[in-house]
Amino acid sequence: MTPKSLEKQIKAEANRLGFALCGITTADASEGFSHYRAWVEKGLFGGMHYLARSDALAKREKPELLLAGCKSLICVGLPYPPAESLASIAAYVRVPDYHLLMREKLTQLASFIEELTGTKPASYIAVDSAAVLEKSFAHRAGFGLVGKNTLLLNEDFGTWFFLGELLVDLELEPDLALASDFCGDCRICVEACPTNALLGDKTMDASKCLSYLTIEHRGSIPVEYREAMGQQVFGCDICQLICPKNENASSSGFAFCFKPTFDGEIDLIEALSLREADFKLRYAGSSFLRAKYQGFRRNVIIALGNSQQARALAVLEAALPDEQDPVCKESMLWAIERLKKMLQ
Ligand code: B12
Ligand code: SF4
Ligand code: SF4
Questions:
Q1: Using CA atoms, how far apart are residues 288 and 142, in angstroms rounded to an integer?
Q2: pTM of the model
Q3: In what order do the strands lie in the sheet containing 72-79?
Q4: How far is the CA of 82 from the centre of ligand 3 (A)?
Q5: Where in the chain are the domains?
Q6: Using an 8 Å Cβ cutoff, are 22 and 14 in contact?
Q7: Whose CA is nearest to atom 11 of ligand 1?
Q8: Tens digit of each residue's pLDDT (9 = 90 or more) over 122-141
Protein backbone atom coordinates (compact mmCIF):
# COMPACT_ATOMS: atom_id res chain seq x y z
CA MET A 1 0.00 0.00 0.00
CA THR A 2 1.43 3.41 -0.93
CA PRO A 3 1.41 6.09 1.80
CA LYS A 4 -0.97 8.16 -0.38
CA SER A 5 -3.64 5.48 -0.41
CA LEU A 6 -3.37 5.17 3.38
CA GLU A 7 -4.30 8.85 3.76
CA LYS A 8 -7.13 8.51 1.25
CA GLN A 9 -8.56 5.54 3.11
CA ILE A 10 -8.31 7.33 6.46
CA LYS A 11 -10.21 10.29 5.02
CA ALA A 12 -12.84 8.07 3.42
CA GLU A 13 -13.40 6.31 6.74
CA ALA A 14 -13.57 9.67 8.57
CA ASN A 15 -16.23 10.81 6.08
CA ARG A 16 -18.12 7.54 6.54
CA LEU A 17 -18.12 8.14 10.29
CA GLY A 18 -19.79 11.52 9.73
CA PHE A 19 -16.74 13.79 9.78
CA ALA A 20 -17.64 15.74 6.67
CA LEU A 21 -14.31 17.53 7.00
CA CYS A 22 -10.99 15.77 7.39
CA GLY A 23 -7.41 16.80 6.70
CA ILE A 24 -3.94 15.88 7.84
CA THR A 25 -1.14 18.06 9.12
CA THR A 26 2.27 17.64 10.70
CA ALA A 27 2.93 17.88 14.44
CA ASP A 28 5.23 20.90 14.40
CA ALA A 29 4.02 24.15 15.98
CA SER A 30 1.17 25.79 14.08
CA GLU A 31 1.52 29.36 12.85
CA GLY A 32 -1.34 30.27 15.18
CA PHE A 33 0.87 29.58 18.18
CA SER A 34 2.49 33.03 18.07
CA HIS A 35 -1.00 34.61 17.93
CA TYR A 36 -2.08 32.50 20.89
CA ARG A 37 1.04 33.38 22.93
CA ALA A 38 0.54 37.10 22.22
CA TRP A 39 -3.12 36.73 23.24
CA VAL A 40 -2.13 35.14 26.55
CA GLU A 41 0.49 37.84 27.17
CA LYS A 42 -2.16 40.53 26.66
CA GLY A 43 -4.34 38.81 29.30
CA LEU A 44 -7.34 38.40 26.97
CA PHE A 45 -8.45 35.06 28.43
CA GLY A 46 -10.86 36.34 31.10
CA GLY A 47 -11.11 33.84 33.94
CA MET A 48 -10.02 30.88 31.78
CA HIS A 49 -6.64 30.62 33.50
CA TYR A 50 -6.14 27.08 32.21
CA LEU A 51 -5.41 28.64 28.80
CA ALA A 52 -2.48 30.64 30.19
CA ARG A 53 -0.65 28.04 32.28
CA SER A 54 2.95 27.37 31.19
CA ASP A 55 2.23 23.67 30.57
CA ALA A 56 -0.80 24.67 28.44
CA LEU A 57 1.44 26.88 26.29
CA ALA A 58 4.08 24.16 25.94
CA LYS A 59 1.52 21.53 24.84
CA ARG A 60 -0.17 23.87 22.39
CA GLU A 61 3.22 24.49 20.82
CA LYS A 62 4.38 20.85 20.82
CA PRO A 63 1.72 18.16 20.37
CA GLU A 64 4.41 15.56 21.18
CA LEU A 65 3.95 16.59 24.82
CA LEU A 66 0.45 15.10 24.54
CA LEU A 67 1.58 12.03 22.58
CA ALA A 68 5.22 10.93 22.67
CA GLY A 69 6.52 10.58 19.11
CA CYS A 70 3.51 12.39 17.61
CA LYS A 71 4.14 12.93 13.89
CA SER A 72 0.73 13.81 12.44
CA LEU A 73 -2.63 15.24 13.39
CA ILE A 74 -5.72 13.92 11.64
CA CYS A 75 -8.06 16.89 11.99
CA VAL A 76 -11.81 16.41 11.64
CA GLY A 77 -14.90 18.61 11.53
CA LEU A 78 -18.38 17.42 12.50
CA PRO A 79 -21.15 19.73 11.26
CA TYR A 80 -24.17 20.55 13.40
CA PRO A 81 -27.49 22.15 12.37
CA PRO A 82 -26.93 25.92 12.06
CA ALA A 83 -28.92 28.50 13.97
CA GLU A 84 -31.50 30.15 11.75
CA SER A 85 -32.06 33.24 13.87
CA LEU A 86 -30.90 34.66 17.17
CA ALA A 87 -32.27 32.63 20.06
CA SER A 88 -31.76 32.30 23.81
CA ILE A 89 -29.84 29.05 23.41
CA ALA A 90 -26.90 28.81 20.98
CA ALA A 91 -27.25 26.21 18.24
CA TYR A 92 -24.42 24.03 19.53
CA VAL A 93 -26.12 23.60 22.91
CA ARG A 94 -29.35 22.40 21.33
CA VAL A 95 -27.72 19.16 20.16
CA PRO A 96 -26.39 16.47 22.55
CA ASP A 97 -22.95 17.18 24.02
CA TYR A 98 -20.56 16.70 21.09
CA HIS A 99 -17.51 15.69 23.12
CA LEU A 100 -18.71 12.14 23.72
CA LEU A 101 -19.90 11.45 20.18
CA MET A 102 -16.70 12.79 18.62
CA ARG A 103 -14.54 10.75 21.00
CA GLU A 104 -16.43 7.60 20.05
CA LYS A 105 -16.03 8.32 16.36
CA LEU A 106 -12.33 9.17 16.71
CA THR A 107 -11.82 5.92 18.65
CA GLN A 108 -13.40 4.07 15.72
CA LEU A 109 -11.10 5.93 13.34
CA ALA A 110 -8.07 4.87 15.43
CA SER A 111 -9.22 1.20 15.29
CA PHE A 112 -9.65 1.49 11.54
CA ILE A 113 -6.06 2.73 11.19
CA GLU A 114 -4.87 -0.19 13.32
CA GLU A 115 -6.63 -2.67 11.02
CA LEU A 116 -5.38 -0.90 7.94
CA THR A 117 -1.73 -0.78 8.96
CA GLY A 118 -1.68 -4.07 10.86
CA THR A 119 0.14 -2.24 13.67
CA LYS A 120 -1.03 -0.44 16.78
CA PRO A 121 0.11 3.15 16.27
CA ALA A 122 0.16 5.27 19.43
CA SER A 123 -2.69 7.75 19.33
CA TYR A 124 -4.32 10.49 21.39
CA ILE A 125 -7.83 11.86 20.96
CA ALA A 126 -8.46 15.58 21.41
CA VAL A 127 -11.89 17.22 21.37
CA ASP A 128 -12.17 20.81 22.58
CA SER A 129 -10.83 20.45 26.11
CA ALA A 130 -7.33 19.14 25.25
CA ALA A 131 -4.39 21.55 24.95
CA VAL A 132 -4.51 21.63 21.13
CA LEU A 133 -4.89 24.78 19.01
CA GLU A 134 -7.69 23.13 17.08
CA LYS A 135 -8.50 25.91 14.61
CA SER A 136 -4.87 26.53 13.72
CA PHE A 137 -4.12 22.86 13.04
CA ALA A 138 -7.38 22.38 11.12
CA HIS A 139 -6.49 25.43 9.04
CA ARG A 140 -3.12 23.90 8.20
CA ALA A 141 -4.87 20.58 7.47
CA GLY A 142 -6.58 22.40 4.63
CA PHE A 143 -10.29 22.63 5.38
CA GLY A 144 -10.79 26.16 6.59
CA LEU A 145 -9.57 29.64 7.37
CA VAL A 146 -9.83 31.61 10.60
CA GLY A 147 -12.25 34.51 10.20
CA LYS A 148 -12.42 37.81 12.08
CA ASN A 149 -15.08 36.18 14.25
CA THR A 150 -12.10 34.00 15.32
CA LEU A 151 -13.84 30.80 14.15
CA LEU A 152 -12.73 28.37 11.47
CA LEU A 153 -14.72 28.94 8.30
CA ASN A 154 -15.24 26.30 5.64
CA GLU A 155 -16.66 27.04 2.20
CA ASP A 156 -19.45 24.44 2.49
CA PHE A 157 -20.36 24.44 6.18
CA GLY A 158 -19.51 28.00 7.17
CA THR A 159 -18.53 27.91 10.85
CA TRP A 160 -21.22 25.45 11.98
CA PHE A 161 -19.02 22.47 12.81
CA PHE A 162 -17.11 21.10 15.77
CA LEU A 163 -13.42 20.25 15.65
CA GLY A 164 -11.51 17.24 16.91
CA GLU A 165 -8.15 15.59 16.26
CA LEU A 166 -6.53 12.20 16.30
CA LEU A 167 -2.83 12.57 17.10
CA VAL A 168 -0.78 9.64 15.77
CA ASP A 169 2.86 8.61 15.72
CA LEU A 170 2.55 7.79 12.02
CA GLU A 171 4.22 9.83 9.34
CA LEU A 172 1.39 10.80 6.98
CA GLU A 173 1.32 12.98 3.89
CA PRO A 174 0.11 16.42 5.03
CA ASP A 175 -2.55 18.42 3.17
CA LEU A 176 -2.00 21.96 1.99
CA ALA A 177 -3.37 24.91 3.95
CA LEU A 178 -5.80 27.21 2.15
CA ALA A 179 -3.91 30.27 1.05
CA SER A 180 -6.70 32.80 0.53
CA ASP A 181 -8.56 34.84 3.14
CA PHE A 182 -12.37 34.67 3.28
CA CYS A 183 -12.83 37.95 5.14
CA GLY A 184 -11.01 40.53 3.03
CA ASP A 185 -12.22 44.00 4.09
CA CYS A 186 -15.40 42.68 5.70
CA ARG A 187 -15.84 43.62 9.38
CA ILE A 188 -19.51 42.77 9.77
CA CYS A 189 -19.02 40.45 12.75
CA VAL A 190 -16.65 42.88 14.50
CA GLU A 191 -19.26 45.61 14.27
CA ALA A 192 -22.20 43.35 15.16
CA CYS A 193 -20.70 41.96 18.36
CA PRO A 194 -22.83 43.47 21.14
CA THR A 195 -19.96 43.72 23.62
CA ASN A 196 -17.13 44.69 21.24
CA ALA A 197 -15.32 41.47 22.08
CA LEU A 198 -13.91 40.95 18.58
CA LEU A 199 -10.67 42.84 18.04
CA GLY A 200 -10.67 42.66 14.23
CA ASP A 201 -7.33 40.81 14.03
CA LYS A 202 -8.87 37.31 14.30
CA THR A 203 -8.65 37.35 18.07
CA MET A 204 -11.01 38.45 20.81
CA ASP A 205 -11.08 39.77 24.34
CA ALA A 206 -12.72 36.66 25.76
CA SER A 207 -13.66 38.43 29.00
CA LYS A 208 -16.22 40.45 26.97
CA CYS A 209 -17.68 37.62 24.89
CA LEU A 210 -21.24 36.61 25.79
CA SER A 211 -20.39 32.99 25.16
CA TYR A 212 -17.69 33.22 27.85
CA LEU A 213 -19.84 35.27 30.21
CA THR A 214 -22.89 32.98 30.00
CA ILE A 215 -21.04 29.64 30.08
CA GLU A 216 -17.55 29.87 31.53
CA HIS A 217 -17.67 32.86 33.85
CA ARG A 218 -18.41 32.13 37.50
CA GLY A 219 -19.96 34.67 39.88
CA SER A 220 -21.85 37.81 38.88
CA ILE A 221 -21.84 39.02 35.29
CA PRO A 222 -20.22 42.49 35.15
CA VAL A 223 -23.04 45.06 35.02
CA GLU A 224 -21.76 46.67 31.79
CA TYR A 225 -22.53 43.50 29.79
CA ARG A 226 -25.95 42.63 31.20
CA GLU A 227 -28.08 44.72 28.85
CA ALA A 228 -26.07 43.44 25.88
CA MET A 229 -27.03 39.90 26.85
CA GLY A 230 -30.62 40.64 25.81
CA GLN A 231 -32.48 37.34 25.91
CA GLN A 232 -29.38 35.17 25.51
CA VAL A 233 -29.16 32.54 28.20
CA PHE A 234 -26.53 30.14 26.98
CA GLY A 235 -23.79 30.88 24.41
CA CYS A 236 -23.97 33.37 21.56
CA ASP A 237 -24.31 32.89 17.80
CA ILE A 238 -24.41 36.53 16.65
CA CYS A 239 -20.99 36.61 14.94
CA GLN A 240 -21.87 33.40 13.09
CA LEU A 241 -25.43 34.37 12.12
CA ILE A 242 -24.27 37.69 10.73
CA CYS A 243 -21.40 36.27 8.65
CA PRO A 244 -22.07 36.33 4.86
CA LYS A 245 -19.94 33.18 4.54
CA ASN A 246 -22.46 31.36 6.72
CA GLU A 247 -25.38 32.70 4.70
CA ASN A 248 -23.85 31.14 1.63
CA ALA A 249 -22.93 27.87 3.33
CA SER A 250 -24.81 25.05 1.69
CA SER A 251 -25.34 22.42 4.36
CA SER A 252 -29.03 22.05 3.39
CA GLY A 253 -29.77 18.42 2.60
CA PHE A 254 -26.75 17.27 4.62
CA ALA A 255 -27.43 14.32 6.95
CA PHE A 256 -26.27 15.70 10.31
CA CYS A 257 -25.08 13.23 12.98
CA PHE A 258 -26.87 15.42 15.53
CA LYS A 259 -30.54 16.22 15.93
CA PRO A 260 -31.46 19.16 18.15
CA THR A 261 -32.96 17.94 21.43
CA PHE A 262 -33.73 21.42 22.79
CA ASP A 263 -35.51 24.44 21.38
CA GLY A 264 -33.71 27.73 20.89
CA GLU A 265 -36.10 29.42 23.31
CA ILE A 266 -36.87 28.51 26.89
CA ASP A 267 -39.69 29.51 29.20
CA LEU A 268 -37.73 31.90 31.42
CA ILE A 269 -40.34 32.05 34.17
CA GLU A 270 -40.54 28.27 34.40
CA ALA A 271 -36.73 28.02 34.28
CA LEU A 272 -36.42 30.41 37.24
CA SER A 273 -38.19 27.96 39.54
CA LEU A 274 -36.36 24.85 38.27
CA ARG A 275 -34.72 23.05 41.20
CA GLU A 276 -31.09 21.89 40.94
CA ALA A 277 -31.94 18.18 40.72
CA ASP A 278 -34.47 18.88 37.96
CA PHE A 279 -31.95 21.08 36.12
CA LYS A 280 -29.45 18.20 36.14
CA LEU A 281 -32.06 15.70 35.04
CA ARG A 282 -33.51 17.85 32.25
CA TYR A 283 -30.15 18.78 30.80
CA ALA A 284 -28.25 15.49 31.37
CA GLY A 285 -25.92 14.71 28.45
CA SER A 286 -26.06 18.29 27.13
CA SER A 287 -23.61 21.21 27.21
CA PHE A 288 -26.04 23.14 29.47
CA LEU A 289 -24.41 21.55 32.51
CA ARG A 290 -21.18 23.43 31.74
CA ALA A 291 -22.67 26.69 33.08
CA LYS A 292 -23.64 24.92 36.32
CA TYR A 293 -26.94 25.52 38.08
CA GLN A 294 -25.94 28.89 39.51
CA GLY A 295 -24.75 30.20 36.14
CA PHE A 296 -27.88 28.98 34.39
CA ARG A 297 -30.22 30.71 36.88
CA ARG A 298 -28.09 33.88 36.88
CA ASN A 299 -28.44 34.03 33.08
CA VAL A 300 -32.19 33.35 33.22
CA ILE A 301 -32.63 36.19 35.73
CA ILE A 302 -30.69 38.66 33.55
CA ALA A 303 -32.72 37.61 30.48
CA LEU A 304 -35.91 38.19 32.52
CA GLY A 305 -34.55 41.62 33.43
CA ASN A 306 -34.15 42.39 29.73
CA SER A 307 -37.58 40.98 28.81
CA GLN A 308 -39.68 44.16 29.23
CA GLN A 309 -42.49 42.01 30.67
CA ALA A 310 -44.59 43.12 33.65
CA ARG A 311 -45.11 39.45 34.50
CA ALA A 312 -41.34 38.95 34.79
CA LEU A 313 -41.20 41.84 37.27
CA ALA A 314 -43.95 40.32 39.40
CA VAL A 315 -42.31 36.88 39.39
CA LEU A 316 -38.89 38.26 40.32
CA GLU A 317 -40.31 40.41 43.13
CA ALA A 318 -42.14 37.40 44.52
CA ALA A 319 -39.01 35.20 44.34
CA LEU A 320 -36.55 37.74 45.80
CA PRO A 321 -37.19 37.28 49.55
CA ASP A 322 -36.58 33.50 49.41
CA GLU A 323 -33.53 33.63 47.13
CA GLN A 324 -30.58 32.00 48.93
CA ASP A 325 -27.85 32.28 46.29
CA PRO A 326 -25.95 35.61 46.59
CA VAL A 327 -25.11 35.84 42.86
CA CYS A 328 -28.71 35.16 41.84
CA LYS A 329 -30.02 37.55 44.49
CA GLU A 330 -27.78 40.36 43.27
CA SER A 331 -28.79 39.62 39.65
CA MET A 332 -32.47 39.71 40.71
CA LEU A 333 -32.06 43.14 42.30
CA TRP A 334 -30.52 44.40 39.05
CA ALA A 335 -33.27 42.78 36.94
CA ILE A 336 -36.04 44.24 39.10
CA GLU A 337 -34.57 47.73 38.88
CA ARG A 338 -34.15 47.44 35.11
CA LEU A 339 -37.70 46.18 34.58
CA LYS A 340 -39.11 48.96 36.76
CA LYS A 341 -37.28 51.56 34.65
CA MET A 342 -38.32 49.95 31.37
CA LEU A 343 -41.97 49.57 32.36
CA GLN A 344 -42.36 53.09 33.77
C1 B12 B 1 -11.51 28.93 24.98
C2 B12 B 1 -12.53 28.68 23.92
C3 B12 B 1 -13.59 29.58 23.81
C4 B12 B 1 -13.59 30.92 24.54
C5 B12 B 1 -12.62 31.87 23.79
C6 B12 B 1 -12.82 31.84 22.26
C7 B12 B 1 -11.69 32.37 21.44
N8 B12 B 1 -12.00 32.73 20.23
O9 B12 B 1 -10.56 32.42 21.87
C10 B12 B 1 -15.09 31.30 24.49
C11 B12 B 1 -15.76 30.78 25.76
C12 B12 B 1 -15.40 32.78 24.34
C13 B12 B 1 -15.58 30.45 23.32
C14 B12 B 1 -16.71 30.74 22.61
C15 B12 B 1 -17.17 29.99 21.55
N16 B12 B 1 -16.70 28.79 21.13
CO17 B12 B 1 -15.05 28.02 21.82
N18 B12 B 1 -13.38 27.21 22.25
C19 B12 B 1 -12.45 27.55 23.07
C20 B12 B 1 -11.30 26.53 22.99
C21 B12 B 1 -11.46 25.56 24.16
C22 B12 B 1 -9.88 27.13 23.01
C23 B12 B 1 -9.71 28.34 22.06
C24 B12 B 1 -8.43 29.06 22.34
O25 B12 B 1 -7.39 28.45 22.55
N26 B12 B 1 -8.47 30.41 22.33
C27 B12 B 1 -7.31 31.23 22.43
C28 B12 B 1 -7.05 31.85 21.04
C29 B12 B 1 -5.92 32.84 20.99
O30 B12 B 1 -6.69 30.77 20.23
P31 B12 B 1 -7.63 30.30 19.05
O32 B12 B 1 -9.05 30.56 19.45
O33 B12 B 1 -7.25 28.93 18.64
O34 B12 B 1 -7.28 31.40 17.99
C35 B12 B 1 -6.46 31.17 16.91
C36 B12 B 1 -6.82 32.11 15.81
O37 B12 B 1 -7.30 33.29 16.37
C38 B12 B 1 -5.50 32.21 15.09
N39 B12 B 1 -5.18 33.54 14.68
C40 B12 B 1 -5.20 34.66 15.34
N41 B12 B 1 -4.81 35.66 14.59
C42 B12 B 1 -4.52 35.15 13.41
C43 B12 B 1 -4.08 35.75 12.27
C44 B12 B 1 -3.85 34.96 11.17
C45 B12 B 1 -3.34 35.63 9.95
C46 B12 B 1 -4.07 33.56 11.23
C47 B12 B 1 -3.83 32.69 10.06
C48 B12 B 1 -4.53 32.96 12.41
C49 B12 B 1 -4.75 33.79 13.46
O50 B12 B 1 -4.46 31.80 15.96
C51 B12 B 1 -5.01 31.52 17.21
C52 B12 B 1 -4.22 30.42 17.82
O53 B12 B 1 -4.39 29.21 17.09
C54 B12 B 1 -11.58 25.88 21.59
C55 B12 B 1 -11.15 24.43 21.48
C56 B12 B 1 -9.65 24.30 21.28
N57 B12 B 1 -9.03 23.42 22.02
O58 B12 B 1 -9.08 25.00 20.43
C59 B12 B 1 -13.13 26.03 21.47
C60 B12 B 1 -13.71 26.29 20.08
C61 B12 B 1 -12.87 27.34 19.41
N62 B12 B 1 -15.02 26.86 20.36
C63 B12 B 1 -15.92 26.54 19.50
C64 B12 B 1 -17.25 27.06 19.50
C65 B12 B 1 -18.28 26.32 18.68
C66 B12 B 1 -17.56 28.23 20.22
C67 B12 B 1 -18.83 29.08 20.12
C68 B12 B 1 -19.36 29.21 18.71
C69 B12 B 1 -19.94 28.53 21.06
C70 B12 B 1 -21.18 29.42 21.14
N71 B12 B 1 -22.07 29.39 20.18
O72 B12 B 1 -21.35 30.14 22.09
C73 B12 B 1 -18.33 30.43 20.69
C74 B12 B 1 -17.82 31.34 19.57
C75 B12 B 1 -17.25 32.64 20.04
C76 B12 B 1 -16.18 33.13 19.07
N77 B12 B 1 -16.50 34.10 18.25
O78 B12 B 1 -15.07 32.58 19.08
C79 B12 B 1 -15.39 25.58 18.44
C80 B12 B 1 -15.18 26.36 17.13
C81 B12 B 1 -15.39 25.55 15.86
C82 B12 B 1 -15.06 26.38 14.65
N83 B12 B 1 -15.72 26.10 13.55
O84 B12 B 1 -14.21 27.23 14.64
C85 B12 B 1 -14.06 25.07 19.15
C86 B12 B 1 -12.92 24.74 18.20
C87 B12 B 1 -14.47 23.83 19.97
C88 B12 B 1 -14.60 22.57 19.13
N89 B12 B 1 -13.81 21.54 19.41
O90 B12 B 1 -15.38 22.50 18.21
N91 B12 B 1 -14.72 29.42 23.06
S1 SF4 C 1 -20.09 35.06 20.34
FE2 SF4 C 1 -21.36 36.92 20.58
S3 SF4 C 1 -20.36 38.14 22.16
FE4 SF4 C 1 -18.89 36.54 21.50
S5 SF4 C 1 -17.66 37.53 19.92
FE6 SF4 C 1 -19.36 36.54 18.85
S7 SF4 C 1 -20.96 38.15 18.74
FE8 SF4 C 1 -19.47 38.81 20.26
S1 SF4 D 1 -18.57 38.47 9.09
FE2 SF4 D 1 -17.05 39.11 7.56
S3 SF4 D 1 -15.22 39.57 8.79
FE4 SF4 D 1 -16.56 38.34 10.07
S5 SF4 D 1 -15.86 36.23 9.78
FE6 SF4 D 1 -17.55 36.60 8.34
S7 SF4 D 1 -16.53 37.23 6.45
FE8 SF4 D 1 -15.03 37.44 8.09
A1: 32
A2: 0.96
A3: 21-26, 72-79, 161-168, 123-126
A4: 16
A5: 1-263, 266-344
A6: yes
A7: 212
A8: 899 999 999 999 999 999 99
